[in-house]
What we know:
Largest sheet: 8 strands, mixed
Low-confidence stretches: none
Distance between the termini: 67 Å
Mean pLDDT: 96
Radius of gyration: 21 Å
Strand content: 15-25%
Structural class: alpha/beta
Amino acid sequence: xxxxxxxxxxxxxxxxxxxxxxxxxxxxxxxxxxxxxxxxxxxxxxxxxxxxxxxxxxxxxxxxxxxxxxxxxxxxxxxxxxxxxxxxxxxxxxxxxxxxxxxxxxxxxxxxxxxxxxxxxxxxxxxxxxxxxxxxxxxxxxxxxxxxxxxxxxxxxxxxxxxxxxxxxxxxxxxxxxxxxxxxxxxxxxxxxxxxxxxxxxxxxxxxxxxxxxxxxxxxxxxxxxxxxxxxxxxxxxxxxxxxxxxxxxxxxxxxxxxxxxxxxxxxxxxxxxxxxxxxxxxxxxxxxxxxxxxxxxxxxxxxxxxxxxxxxxxxxxxxxxxxxxxxxxxxxxxxxxxxxxxxxxxxxxxxxxxxxxxxxxxxxxxxxxxx
Length: 372
C-alpha cells in the first residue's frame, strides 16, 4: 500500500495585496506539496478577509495577530513574508530561528548589515531565506541564462536594463513608502531591483558601478530615479535605469552578445513570447533556430519560484535566490547608492562593515539621510 506524501506546513506573514494576489495562488498551484496552515496580520479585518479568500480556495487557515505565537503553535516548514520592508529582517530571523525556511518579498532587508544578520541566523539554524525574484524563474529566463552562460550566443558585450514605471502622489501617501527607515530606498530598492537582479542572473558578477540619482518629482526622502553604468567580470558593459517618473511604463533587458542580441520586453511578468533573439549577420539560420525558446511556456511568477524552492527543500540544499546569490543583488543596490551619493565609482566588495553604506543605503549622506 502506497502512502500519501506528507505536505509541508506553510504560513504567510502579512495578508495584503501581494500575499493574496501572488503567494496564495502559488500555494494553491503546489497544494500537492505544501499546505497553508496559518496567516499572521496585525489588522483583524484584513486577516479575516484573507482567511475567507483562502477558504474559497479550499484552505482552512488559522489566524494570528502575533508572529511568535504562530511560530510556536504551528511550527511551519516554510514562512512566506509579504509585509513592509522594514519588518523583513526581524521576521525572517524569527522564522529561521525556529527551523523554518523563508521566502520573503523584496527587498529581503534594508542593508548589507541586516543581510549579514540573516546569514548568521541561517548558519545557526541550518535553514535558508530566499528573496522573491520571480522573473528569474520563467522558462524564457531559464533558457536565456543557459544560452548566455554556456556560450551559445558568444561573449556578452553590451547590455541595457530598464525599469521605467510611473507612480503618483497617492502611491507615496502610504506612510512607509519613500522613507529610508521603512522602505530602504526608492525605485532602486523597490522597483528596478527585479530587473537588475535578472540582469545579474544572466551576466554574472559585476565589478564596478558609476551612478547618479535624483529626487525630481516626489517629496520623498529617497530618490525617484537612478541611473548606472556597470562593468561585469566578463568585461561586458551595461546601463541600468530605475524610474517611477515614466508615463509609458516598460520593463526591458537587452544583452548584445558576439553572435546574437537577446531582448526581453514586458511590464510585471514575462512569458516565452516576450523574449526575442536576433542573430548577428554571420550566424547561419540553423544555428539561430536552436536558440528558439522552449516549447513549454512557464511564465515568471511566484508559483514558478515556489516550485524551485520546494525542489531545493526536498533535496536539503540551498535554494537559488538566497545566500551569496541574493547578497550580490543587494550589494549592487548599496554600491549604486554609494556611487550616486559620493560621485565616484564603487567596486564589488568594497562596502565593508566600517563603511556607512553597509548599515544604510543613504550612507549618512547629509543631502539624503533622514532629517531628524
